[in-house]
Amino acid sequence: MAKCLWVVLTALVAYALWLFQPVKIMAVHKEYGAATVLVENFPIWPWWQEAWFNSHQADLEKRYGIPVSRRDGSWSIFFMGWQGGYRKDSVTDKDSDLLCFNDMNTDVNCILKEPLLWVSRNAYGEVNYR
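Request: output the structure for the sequence above.
Response:
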């Protein structure tokens, strides 16, 4: 019984350590009115993602210059999972799951689509999380 309890406790501690890893921002790609942020260790639960964004919004603006507002004050930020690096789009159906960035001067400018969070503000100042 003590051995089983020890295994469960160890697993819970390992899971907790994994959950509380800091979010790593690997890259930021900006376009007019929108930004895509590539991240590792992003929170799992939607309420935690929103809390993370709210507590790091000032840092995102200061370090990365996001959000990038449109003329009407609206903006969007897309948080995508980082899949270990950029890939080349072979322009075939097998690469339909890639998201490519035109702001890079290379043909290795795509990532696998792994949407995690979309934060947007409309022209009226309402912020939405999806």
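Strands lie at 24-31, 34-40, 75-81, 98-100, 110-112, 115-121, 127-129.
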